[in-house]
Amino acid sequence: MRIAFYSTMGGMPWGGSEELWSRAAAVLLARGHQVCVNYRRRRQLVAPLEKLRQLGAEVYWRRGALYGRSVRRVLEKLNLGQQPYARWLKHARPDFVLVSVGYHVDDVAITQTCRLLGIPYGLVVQAASPYQFVEPRAYEGLRAAYGGAARLYFVSGQNRDVLEANLALDLSDSEIVDNPFNMRADAAPAWPADDKLWKLACVARIHFQSKAQDLLVDVLRRPKWRSRPLQVALWGHDGGNLRQVEALIALHGLERQLVVAGFSNDIEALWRDHHALILPSRFEGNALAMIEAMMCGRAPIVTNVGRVAELVDDNRTGFIAPAPTAELLDQALERAWQLRHEWKTMGALAAQTIRERHSQRPAEDFAEAILAAPRRAGLRAAA
């Protein structure tokens, strides 16, 4: 088969949302299928895409938006530019198009052209926030895009529910898929040797809107946490709020409690030096950091977003704050602190349960789902 991949990734060169489709593409190439990729042009080399190209994929670098929003609205009213990426699709001649949606309000206008050309397509949604709704002007287009898909994939049922509410569509026939992880499936890093300072890791890009590191500041500035031997290290790239978090640390004198640690490619090495994960996200799809922490035998302290409730047993394999607020996060962290001498045992159980509930070969599973998807074309009626 000839499979085309289109990613909506816009702001960053690469991210966790790109791991599933790109690794599935590599699996398809290894199995003898043809792959073509449409990705936004970047100034710097995007290593995973270069690897796909070396494996035999055709990579098309598209430009960013050529016109501002007001100009695009005029073109829409004049019925111009209504077949986005038609030239690429006609050249690529795919049997199926997989659109990777990094965020639920991303532009998926390419699906309109797929419908006009009779090309079956699917969408995989990596994140959906209950705090941002589809704009009225985009409603009909997105509703048609999802309603006309041969197959829909979500990384959590919660994300699917957000899209159902936004589009007023029954998406119950969609499939929940697992994300790949960036470590060995049998990883088992040693427990930290230091027992005088309890160290938590927040593994996420520093981005308040989604990852909510600002909530950590709010919690850790409270007197009880200042007096306890607890430290949180922020591991991750700057997602736009690095300067703010550094300024907040200085403002509240939290240099001992909250440390900006940088970025690490070695997940197992990271967890050899930390006792548990803390991830106060305001929204998620299926956080890779949580999956990796649990597989490494570390209990997560997390907010109830994405697939958390499906994968973490509260007070047994981790600690769940019911919602992303400072008060509820403080309560979850307090429960965790009172059971800190059980974190090692809880982490071992977390490692066992995550391997029972989450695929150990997500890229291969998704590649097989993509190959089966064209047979479903026409089964979903457009809205």
Low-confidence stretches are 74-80, 378-383
Fraction of residues in helix: 25-40%
Average pLDDT confidence is 91
Largest sheet: 7 strands, parallel
H/E series, N to C?
A: EHEHEHHEHEHEHEEHHHEHEHEHEHEHHH
Category from helices, strands and their pairing:
alpha/beta
Overall 3D form? globular
Spatial extent as radius of gyration? 22 Å
**Ends distance:** 28 Å
Beta-strand segment tally: 13
Notes on the structure:
This protein is α/β, with parallel strands linked by helices and 383 residues long. The protein is 39% helix and 17% strand. It has 2 domains: 2-178 and 361-376, Glycogen Phosphorylase B (Rossmann fold, 3-Layer(aba) Sandwich), CATH 3.40.50.2000; 198-357, Glycogen Phosphorylase B (Rossmann fold, 3-Layer(aba) Sandwich). A 7-stranded parallel β-sheet has the order 3-2-1-4-5-6-7, with helices on both faces. A 6-stranded parallel β-sheet has the order 10-9-8-11-12-13, sandwiched between helices. Helix 1 runs parallel beside helix 2 (47-55), helix 9 (213-220) crosses helix 15 and helix 13 (288-295) packs across helix 16. The relative contact order is 0.13.
List keywords for this structure.
Rossmann fold, six-stranded parallel beta sheet, 39% helix, 17% strand
Topology:
Layout: E1 2-7, H1 19-30, E2 34-40, H2 47-55, E3 58-62, H3 69-77, H4 86-92, E4 96-101, H5 110-117, E5 121-125, H6 136-147, E6 151-154, H7 157-167, E7 175-176, E8 198-203, H8 208-211, H9 213-220, H10 223-226, E9 230-235, H11 242-252, E10 258-262, H12 267-271, E11 276-279, H13 288-295, E12 299-303, H14 308-311, E13 319-321, H15 326-338, H16 343-357, H17 362-372
Parallel strand pairs: 1-2, 1-4, 2-3, 4-5, 5-6, 6-7, 8-9, 8-11, 9-10, 11-12, 12-13
